[in-house]
# Entry
Amino acid sequence: QVQLVESGGGLVQAGGSLRLSCVGSGRIFSDSTVGWYRQAPGKEREFLGAINWSGSSPNYANSVKGRFTISRDNAKNTVYLQMNNLKPEDTAVYFCSAGISWGQGTQVTVSS
# Structure
C-alpha cells in the first residue's frame, strides 16, 4: 500500500496561484495512476483530474480544465497540482489518491 502526503495548501486571494504536492512512498507510487480530489464543507468529494505513471495525457474535470495542471516527477516520487486563477469556490481540502490509498489532505482557502 502506498503512503501519500499532500502539502502546499494555504490562503490565497482570488486570481492567485498555488502548487500542491503529493509525495508517495515506494516504487509502486511511480508505477501508479495518481488522482487529485477536493472536498468542500458540506459537499461530496470531487474528482479534479488524474495522471498515469508516465505523466502523459493527464485528464481533468470540466470544472478545472484550463486552470489546473497535473504533472509528476517520478524521480522525486511526487505528483503536482498547479492551480491558477483561483476562485473562492475552489476553497476545499485537496487530496491525492493512488489505488486504494489516500493522503490526509491539505487545505486551500481562496479569499474574494
About this structure: Residues 30 and 75 are 8 Å apart (CA to CA).
